[in-house]
Amino acid sequence: MTEYIKYVDVTKCDGCRACMVACKSWNDLEAEPESFNGTIQSHETLTANTWNLITYQEKEMNGRFEWLFRHKSCLHCTDAGCEKVCPENAISYTDYGSVVVDYDKCVGCGYCVEGCPFDVIQLTHYIDENGREQRRAQKCTLCTDRLDEGLQPACVNSCHTDALMFGEKDEMLALAEKRVKEVKERYPKAHIYNPPGVNGTHTIYVLVEDPEFYGLPKNPKVPTSAKIWKDYAQPIGKALLGVTTMAVLGSMVSNKFLNPYHGGGDSDEQK
User: Fold this and answer.
1) What per-residue confidence (pLDDT) applies to 236?
2) Beta strand segments in the chain, E
3) What is the DSSP letter of 34?
4) Would you list which residues are annotated within the binding site?
5) What is the pLDDT of residues 2-30, one digit of tens each?
6) Is the pTM of this model over 0.90?
């Protein structure tokens, strides 16, 4: 099966925010105005209705100050913590490698928020068709609906500097490796961010500083407890629940139809 990757080159991003606008527009996400916080960054962080964000950081490099931007969104981990901890199997992987939420299954428990090593997925409140307030998890889908139609993700399609690209895994990794070599003289710390602790991601970066500078964990991992829960405890628990349920139903059936005192047969007094 062909794997796909979104490639983010921070050395080409000029902070225009076109990707943010395209994401909001395509996914019909509500606007979230924030008070001025003394910086030019539009939002403090990602939310359930802001799925991608350009971060702005100024740093002295090579004797001068430079703005370093990062396109911040879901990385779509190959081994996703949010998917591991979801008790309702509402989070799954697609053939493209994207990690998506099934809104019909999501119960808004918030375990995924705690399980994400990148602090990406968040809960939103909404009113259902019965007028009741509900919660559900929302985040970037890598525009899976557009991919189904042979289109690029909306953010990639809007990028005028080719800081965002999308394609087959091998091709994108080759581009990233080539770019690191091109910028090494200017940015000695340049490297590819594709953390092995989550078996790699389907959004990779060319960074020019340590991951922590950009607010990224150095070596994110899915907690062992989450793996045990998803891969062992949950399946066993459901199996046991199934056995228990069948035992209870069997007992009810036996009592109703086979017990002579419940009308299922003739007692000695009835004979």
Assistant:
1) 63
2) 4-9, 52-61, 64-73, 91-93, 99-101, 122-127, 133-138, 164-168, 191-193, 203-207
3) -
4) 13, 16, 19, 23, 74, 77, 82, 86, 106, 109, 112, 116, 140, 143, 155, 159
5) 889 999 999 999 999 999 999 999 999 99
6) no
CB 153 within 8 A of CB 147: yes
Annotated binding-site positions for [4Fe-4S] cluster: 13, 16, 19, 23, 74, 77, 82, 86, 106, 109, 112, 116, 140, 143, 155, 159
Q: Count other C-beta atoms under 10 Å from residue 260's C-beta.
A: 13
DSSP 88: T
β-strands 203-207, 191-193 pairing = antiparallel
Q: Kindly indicate the confidence band of residue 254, based on its pLDDT and cuts at 50, 70 and 90.
A: very low
Spatial distance between the Cα atoms of 35 and 56, rounded to a whole number of angstroms: 17
